[in-house]
Amino acid sequence: MNDFDEVIDRQHGNAEKYTLRKQLFGTEDVLPMWVADMDIKTPYFVTEAVAKRAGEAIYGYEEMSDSAFEAQIAWMDREHDFTIEREWMSYSPSVVATINLAIQAFTRPGEKVIYQPPVYAPFFKSIANNERELVSNPLRCDEQGDYHFDFDDLRMKIDKDTKLLLLCSPHNPVGRVWREEELRELADVCLEHDIKVLSDEIHSDLVYRPHRHIPFASLSDAIRDITITAIGPGKTFNVAGLSISTVVIADETMRQQFETLSKRIHFAEGTVFGHVGFEAAYRDGRVWREALMEHLLVNVQKLEAVVQKHSDKITMRIPEGTYLAWMDCSKMGLSDKALKGFFVEKAGLGLSPGILFGREGKGYMRLNFAVPSATMDRALLQLDAALDDL
Ligand SMILES: Cc1ncc(COP(=O)(O)O)c(C=O)c1O
């Protein structure tokens, strides 16, 4: 059995995916395929590094080591052709924290921040929570179900108070890996209007061939100098619980603005286990990640086969990146409440309703397929049977 097929019992621990089932779905009797962590084992080279550190006697204050940053720098260079200098980088406990801090550092209350729904909810919640004005620039979905930036809408909505754009790249939940020409056009608009870009690239290592992730800041020096890049091992190596990510800001003034705030809040330097897990992931993770991607692709292809069988009810595109399937269930003709109810009660699956990603997600459901094969097969049997009966 390979590492990706071992079923780990998470029901008796604190895994949020499981503990929140009753609250979210009204029952514990669902296979939870919602929040974006994996039911796949964290790789052995990470757990071994953490176990070794756990055996050392003192867990006092620690700085994140240069060697940890260097491991990520080497990874970004090799995997994404993105050259990062050590001094551009800092620690952040989470990408969502980085988003909030960037909003505070680079905009003032009442100023406008652009987001592109349907999108990971903390994007728009962070704008609202920080009392900035939300500017929605929805992605455009074409007849094939592919999503695109809507540049006409974007240009129309920008005014002098628009200061920041939150880019999700690759995009959760629609699974797009943005192509170079799309990113360049987006960058041109932002450069022209003096808009900074927070590029959330947490899913950047979860991209299916032949697609290729292009770091927004790698496009040109000018683009790099308006960009805050948020990256981390949380999704790829299933270490969200280690609370570690990094922020890359090349422009010195912007970096100082950001760091002043992060010091004020006291992000500090993270946990002793986070540091070693992070370093091991980026240092030793290459082969494991490639095998993971093969496993994920098989899972999503199986899902696609079931969805195709029921194409009168559900349609989906295989995502270009992420382990999240964005399923268009609008042909089922159900309200969002009834749709969620169908998946919970008839299919026994706890998924994320599309509406949580903005009103553009109405009629969709998001399914996390980062699970062992046996779990995937069980989920698909349940889904197939429920759709047969509908
Ligand atoms: C696009 C995106 N950004 C950020 C996060 C969360 O990152 P963190 O746990 O580092 O805050 C997620 C988790 O699903 C995500 O999908």
Fold and architecture overview:
The chain is an alpha/beta fold and 390 residues long. The protein has 2 domains: 16-43 and 286-389, Aspartate Aminotransferase, domain 1 (Alpha-Beta Complex), CATH 3.90.1150; 48-284, Type I PLP-dependent aspartate aminotransferase-like (Major domain) (Aspartate Aminotransferase, domain 2). Helix content is 41%, strand content 14%. It has a 7-stranded mixed beta sheet, sandwiched between helices. Strands 11-14-13 form a 3-stranded antiparallel beta sheet, covered by helices on one side. Strands 1-12 form a two-stranded parallel ribbon. Strand 8 (196-200), helix 9 (221-224) and strand 9 (227-231) form a beta-alpha-beta unit. The model has no long low-confidence stretch (mean pLDDT 97). The chain binds pyridoxal-5'-phosphate. Residues 36, 94-96, 120, 168, 172, 200, 202, 232, 234, 240, 245 line the site of pyridoxal-5'-phosphate.
